[in-house]
């Protein structure tokens, strides 16, 4: 059974700010990739995908993990591939980290979905809608509250 995990972003945490949130996404992607997962990050748009790719270069050298944007990098890609709405991962991925507000149709291609519940009310409502869609698609759902950085 596929799984979907929603991370709840609290206003008091560094992840509530754009830079802190994207740094947390990099942390999660690295965490899953170190466990052997082939990770796809589904950005909301091309600019966000490019910003994330740049953040992966800004980690400490011992924390660096190879990554690439869709269409770049080696033929069979790296453990972490970054794309956005309208592009597809270049090869089979087990886990997607979804940053797109309205996009869920891709999810059935992944055994594991990571999504977020932001602080802002409109974004929170969109997250609730995605949650319902995952539930209707048969995903086993869980939530994790981001309590610290």
Automatic annotation (TrEMBL):
SUPFAM superfamilies the record matches: DNA polymerase III chi subunit
InterPro entries, per database record: DNA_pol3_chi (IPR007459), PolIII_chi_sf (IPR036768)
Protein origin, superkingdom: Bacteria
GO molecular function, one term: DNA-directed DNA polymerase activity
GO biological process: DNA replication; positive regulation of DNA-templated DNA replication initiation
Protein name listed in UniProt: DNA polymerase III subunit chi
Organism: Vibrio hepatarius
Organism ancestry: Bacteria, Pseudomonadati, Pseudomonadota, Gammaproteobacteria, Vibrionales
